[in-house]
Amino acid sequence: MADNEDTLVILGTEIVPGDVKMLNFSIAKLYTSTQIDIPVIVARSTEPGPTVLLTAGIHGDEINGVEIVRQIIAKKINRPKRGTTICIPILNIFGFLNAERTFPDGRDLNRVFPGTKTGSLASRVAYHFTKKILPHADYCLDFHTGGASRFNAPQLRIHRGDDYLLTLAKIFNAPFTIYSNNIDKSYRTTCAKKGIPTLLFEGGKSLESNKNVVKEGVDGTMRFLSHFNMLSDSFEAPAPKRKTVLIEKTKWMRAQKSGLLHIKIECNKHVEKGEFLATITDPFGEMRHKVIAPNEGYIINVNHAPIVYQGDAIFHITTVNATVSETEEDELHE
Fold first, then answer.
1. Which SUPFAM superfamilies does the UniProt record give (predicted)?
2. 3-class SS at 82?
3. For the CA atoms of the chain, what is the radius of gyration?
């Protein structure tokens, strides 16, 4: 619901119109009894309007998303012309401290939503976030990266069949918009069940900050806020270089040999059937296997690992002849 209240109360703190406050979302301490707070930055306009929630760092090793939200705060893009923004640059602060994807309990925060009050640490964080912060949101922007060494082209993921989400995705205008089923117990699924429109942004890979990916995330957010007349008059939403490419079907290309992987193309590239994409060699100079595009399409994920085993996913390519199975889609590391 739109923010029309004179006083907004989040995490027990009152935020009146025109205020900008940093709140502390605290669930548990470190072993040393050191307090661990998850900073929540709330910015309100004096003019009523919608509330947009921006989250990153659901996986602690996904730095690009953290940098996107950080820049939005640092540049004061989060200071709305109307309505409210809630920014959480690092939701999984425990994983971030350890430079790891998961919580110290080994659980993936994005697989335990909406969480339980007395469950694992990750589940408790999901529960309190879902109960105390999420209900204030009218729209959610959630920022991720590819898992491990897999580099994702900047992209939005939306559930097929939701025309309003597609409209919002076109407004954000990432280079690619991909139809992707909601994953059970994910943050995006919880938002969908609560009727909160949510765009999930993916770009880059874990433990890396990529300025081009970050720019796509920041620019898209500015266009999104501008659409709702929330972007301050101090900014002008960047015009997109091209319209987002809508992707309906994809498949993984897997290594046919084990060995050293030598990538010959860049992520984002449109390739033709039979185009030379990479080589796989052995360490001894005796084997050289060429990786060829099986069809025309866009390369939306590239494995940057220097070595691979037979069967490892090395490219994610768009196709009209394949669908993403549940197992394959989970490998996208949302």
1. Zn-dependent exopeptidases
2. coil
3. 21
